[in-house]
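Our preliminary data section would be incomplete without showing what the modeling component actually yields. Below, a chain of 139 amino acids is followed by its predicted structure, encoded as tokens that our downstream tools consume directly.
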Amino acid sequence: MQKLLTITLASIFLVSDFSSAAAQQRIPKDPNYLAGSDDELNIPSFLNTEKEESRPRKSKFLALGLSFVLPGAGHYYTDNKSRMMFFGTNEALIWSGFFGFRLYGNWKKEDYSAWSSFHAGAVVDGKDDRFFEKLKTLC
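Predicted structure:
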């Protein structure tokens, strides 16, 4: 059994070693292998030495202020639409979860006050939470 395991591991090692060597031979050694071509569509972006159009610089502090006011607005200001969607969506989900759980908690509070008033025969109109804590011992 140990011999079979050793042979299997050795063959996996040799196959992976030869496949990585073959892959390395296919990669050209010259990083400028497409630089002389007339077809600019095939030139990778890291080889393109032409300057892109300079965009006007945007204020980092204004972007920060916009993000404090409305999450994602700073990313929108800096033309980073994908991050704006990510942060804006996450913020909306967090706030909707907060208000949803708060509403659910109020529903549960109404349910337990109705239950306790029915089973204890108590008048619960206008009572605070301490009243229900004391009423809990009676039910």
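The longest helix spans residues 81-120. The radius of gyration is 33 Å. Preliminary results of this kind motivate Aim 1 of the renewal.
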